[in-house]
Amino acid sequence: MQGDTVRAPFDGLVQPHRPGCVIYSSPEVPAYVFRICGLSQSEVGPITAAKPLGRGQTVQFAALRRQPDGTWAIVEPAVDVLEQMVE
């Protein structure tokens, strides 16, 4: 990423996770959440589509899908969603 901006692909919510990581969720994709690590200058709270989630030199993305039993499983993120986040 070399310090580039990561953007929200949809209106949603940014929540703190572990140090250096946030959880991004959106009602537009309610079965999924995205864990994004390596961001700096990230803010938590509501966010609108295309607004910056933060910047990062090396950013790690994980897409998680809620399973029928309520647990979360790491899944392969959709390419178009990743493209929206890093364009």
Q: What is Rg?
A: 12 Å
- How large is the count of helical segments? 1
Instruction: Give the strand line-up of the largest sheet.
Output: 5-2-3-4-7-8
* Total number of distinct structural domains: 1
End-to-end gap:
10 Å
Number of strands: 8
Instruction: Return the structural class.
Output: mainly beta
What proportion strand? 35-45%
Characterize the biggest β-sheet.
6 strands, antiparallel
Tell me, briefly, the overall form: globular
* Average pLDDT metric: 93
Percent of residues in helices? under 10%
- H/E topology pattern: EEEEEEEEH
Which residue ranges are poorly predicted, with pLDDT under 50 across at least 5 consecutive positions? none
Describe the structure.
- This protein is mainly beta and about 90 residues long.
- The chain has one domain.
- Helix content is about 10%, strand content about 45%.
- The chain contains 1 helix and 8 strands; from the N terminus they run ββββββββα.
- The strands form 2 sheets. It has a 6-stranded antiparallel beta sheet, with no helix packed on it. Strands 1-6 form a two-stranded antiparallel ribbon.
- A hairpin with a 5-residue loop joins strand 7 and strand 8.
- The longest helix has 8 residues.
- The protein is globular.
- The model has no long low-confidence stretch (mean pLDDT about 95).
What are its keywords?
87 residues; two-stranded antiparallel ribbon; six-stranded antiparallel β-sheet; globular; mainly beta
Question: How would the blueprint of this fold be written?
Answer:
Blueprint (H helix, E strand, L loop, with lengths): L3 E4 L4 E5 L4 E5 L6 E6 L7 E3 L4 E5 L3 E7 L5 E4 L3 H8 L1
Antiparallel strand pairs: 1-6, 2-3, 2-5, 3-4, 4-7, 7-8
